[in-house]
Amino acid sequence: MTISAGAGQAHLDTSTQPARLRIAGDWTLPHYARLRQLARQLTGRYDHNTPIDLDQLGAIDTAGASLLVELLGAERLGRLADTAVHLPGSSRALLQTVYCSMQDFCEPLKEPELNVGIQLLSRIGTAVSTVWQDTLQLLGFVGLILETLARGLLRPKRWRVTAVVAHIEQTGLDAAPIVALLTFLVGAVVAFLGATILSNFGASIYTVNLVAFSFLREFGVLLTAILMAGRTASAFTAQIGSMKANEEIDAIRTLGLDPMELLVVPRVLALLVALPALTFLAMLCGIIGGGVPCVPCRWGFRQRCSCPSYRPTSACSTFWWAW
């Protein structure tokens, strides 16, 4: 049986005993599709004892060599590459290289699948380990800051007042508008909702306590901390991270300076000054914002009642009279 594949050929010669598989022509990439079909048709028509004749093999590349590996097997092709003396040296070298690469290749073993319970426990353990490592790094960082501050107390000449003042402006003054706006709006929402709900129970006078306690105890500090973490802390991280990427921190160490003293401590001191001031501002703006929604109600009740001893029962007006 003879099957032609363009320039490449392969046929099983049954006129001789035993039958011989003869491979001839060019086994190259332009003929790959037909050569692959040829190799599939010949599969199973011969065994490992069938002699192979490569004397008429023409040009060959890696695509054709891969088809020969599929047709003959890597081991057999390697033996033929050594014994086919009529092949050009380049073809024999290519076949030998393909054989060696097939010998060195080992198919990676598929990892056994774990059940859902083990995977869940593994993820929980990984998360706990990550949190523990992050906690240790955070404690180490805090320790370095405290150590640098303690050393700075003994050497006042090394204090960087200019840097601290600049960071106070950046973290305090520049953040004041957004802190004031957010707490003002939150105070207005708390007062409106509190007065509306409490009026259903005849307890609208406690709207004053609701706004005052919520901002003096909780919202003032909480909103300021969230804004500082999202605005200022992220800006600090970006600045120091950019310096780390540009190797500026390594240059600071090369100059004999301490990065903690130069970059970290001034920012920490600036936050220690700016956070209480911004918290106080947030408390004031929150309380003022709680009173602003009630201004129209107060004016409306004053127009309807000229008696100075009159106290309206509206929730918003109660808020203003109690204030």
Which keywords apply here?
323 residues; Transcription Regulator spoIIAA; 2 domains; 4-stranded mixed beta sheet; 12 helices; 4 strands; 8% strand
Explain what the structure shows.
The structure is a single chain. With 323 residues, the chain is α+β, with helices and mostly antiparallel strands. The chain folds into two domains: 2-104, 2-Layer Sandwich (Transcription Regulator spoIIAA), CATH 3.30.750; 160-322, no CATH class. It has twelve helices and four strands. The chain has a four-stranded mixed sheet, with helices on one face. α7 runs antiparallel to α8 and α8 (207-245) packs antiparallel against α10. 23% of the residues are buried. Mean pLDDT is 78; it is low at 1-6 and 297-323.
Global Rg: 42 Å
Q: Tell me the total number of β-strands.
A: 4
Largest sheet: 4 strands, mixed
- Name the helix and strand elements from N-terminus to C-terminus, one letter apiece: EEEHEHHHHHHHHHHH
Structural class of the secondary elements?
Answer: alpha+beta
Mean pLDDT: 78
- Describe the strand arrangement of the main beta sheet, using strand numbers: 1-2-3-4
Distance between the termini: 107 Å
Summarize the structure.
Helices cover 68% and strands 8% of the residues. By secondary structure, it is of the alpha+beta class. The model is unreliable at 1-6 and 297-323 (pLDDT under 50).
Topology:
Elements: E1 2-5, E2 8-13, E3 20-27, H1 32-42, E4 52-60, H2 62-72, H3 74-83, H4 89-104, H5 116-153, H6 161-173, H7 176-199, H8 207-245, H9 248-254, H10 259-291, H11 295-304, H12 315-322
Parallel strand pairs: 3-4
Antiparallel strand pairs: 1-2, 2-3
